[in-house]
Design goal:
Protein name: YibE/F family protein
Order of helices and strands: HEEEEEHHHHHHHHHH
Pfam families: YibE_F (PF07907)
Structural class: alpha+beta
Oligomer: single chain
Helix content: 55-70%
Number of strands: 5
Keywords: Membrane, Transmembrane, Transmembrane helix
Strand content: 5-15%
């Protein structure tokens, strides 16, 4: 076995162990994640009469608390008779308002996680089969982040230290792991991770200024749930800015790899080529890569803000004054700008990195593309 094969084997084993650890920790986090002591999961076992009081409809039901099997009576408000039909077997949450006399239960919300859990498993299973081994490598960041988010670990990490530092470190690690799986070269993986973090930091600075000048704090005051849960404005402000880091990461993770691969190919084909030529090669390749994805960004963020665009006329202001529409536009521009910036940054760092050493570059590309 050659040294490169041994290195690849060690990298593969290390990556497999890392993924297994993340999956295990995420599963444990999801299992032991704390739930409010007065909230219980329940199942509707019997639908009773529908009553109207003061122009508001209420559906009377009997439900069984999942943990204790206790039968309780509930009244669930129905805002739309066609879209919010309550059926036997529906999974819900109930709140226990304990009194000195007895427990009084009220409807706390629909339980969607059971459906989401199985849909997610089927989704990723089908995707893994269709994408195959090589395609699956590209969605490793999605898989790991998905597990971290829904297990509650990502939320816990955000409270360890500075929110922005933690987010940058997480995304930098995801970039490194993803690139190492795809290219099997530590130098290129480090280069791509550094390029990603520099780009994300620049996007963060730009976004903070734009959010501040466009008064995005209004998003906080229009969210009744946040205000009622006593969330502080500064917490919301930090999170909406950190959200842009994740959006920009998704916009650049594959582009930066394409740029790095194009430069490595150029270096392998023309070992004596100059650093300037390598940078030029990466920049040209980035133009093509970005041109292919900007349309995707636009229609994704258009879909996210479409309801606000169409339904904001009731405020009397043009739809482009709606804070949710402005946020969507800034998201689109931030993602596109990140994709534009990451190319030159990756090209510069990769070209300089390859020019420093004389050892041959070992880059594992997909079959048929060598």
């Amino acid at each position: 076995m050659t040294s490169s094969q041994k290195l690849f084997s060690l990298q593969t084993i290390g990556l497999i162990v890392f993924v297994l650890i993340v999956i295990l920790v995420s599963a444990l986090g999801a299992t032991y994640r704390e739930q409010s002591q007065d909230i219980y999961s329940a199942t509707v076992v019997r639908v009773l009469d529908l009553v109207q009081e003061g122009g508001i409809y209420y559906q009377n039901v009997e439900a069984k608390i999942d943990d204790s099997g206790k039968l309780i009576s509930l009244r669930i408000q129905v805002r739309d008779l066609n879209l919010e039909e309550i059926n036997s077997g529906d999974n819900i949450y109930v709140r226990d308002a304990q009194t000195s006399i007895s427990d009084i239960y009220s409807f706390a919300g629909h339980r969607r996680s059971n459906i989401l859990f199985w849909v997610s498993i089927v989704f990723f299973a089908v995707m893994s089969v269709i994408l195959g081994k090589e395609g699956f490598k590209y969605i490793v960041p999605t898989m790991l982040t998905f597990l971290l988010v829904f297990s509650g670990i990502l939320e816990a990490l955000f409270f360890i230290s500075n929110l922005y530092v933690i987010a940058l470190l997480i995304l930098g690690l995801l970039a490194f792991i993803s690139m190492l799986i795809q290219v099997r070269n530590v130098r290129i993986a480090i280069t791509v991770a550094i390029s990603q973090m520099i780009t994300l930091f620049l996007i963060l600075l730009i976004n903070v200024m734009l959010f501040k000048t466009t008064f995005m704090t209004e998003l906080f005051y229009t969210n009744v749930t946040l205000i009622s849960s006593q969330v502080r404005l500064i917490e919301f402000w930090n999170l909406i800015n950190v959200a842009v880091l994740f959006i920009a990461f998704g916009a650049t993770i594959n582009t930066t790899l394409d740029v790095a691969q194009s430069i490595v190919k150029k270096k392998r084909t023309y070992p004596k080529t100059s650093t300037i030529n390598l940078i030029r090669e990466g920049t040209v390749h980035n133009q093509l890569a970005v041109g292919r994805v900007v349309n995707s960004f636009f229609f994704v963020f258009l879909g996210v803000t479409l309801s606000s665009i169409v339904l904001s006329s009731g405020s009397g202001l043009p739809f482009w004054e709606d804070p949710y529409v402005v946020q969507g536009v800034l998201w689109f521009m931030g993602a596109s700008l990140a994709a534009l910036l990451v190319g030159p940054i990756t090209a510069l760092i990769t070209a300089i990195s390859l020019s420093q050493g004389e050892s041959p570059i070992q880059l594992a590309l997909r079959e048929g593309k060598n």
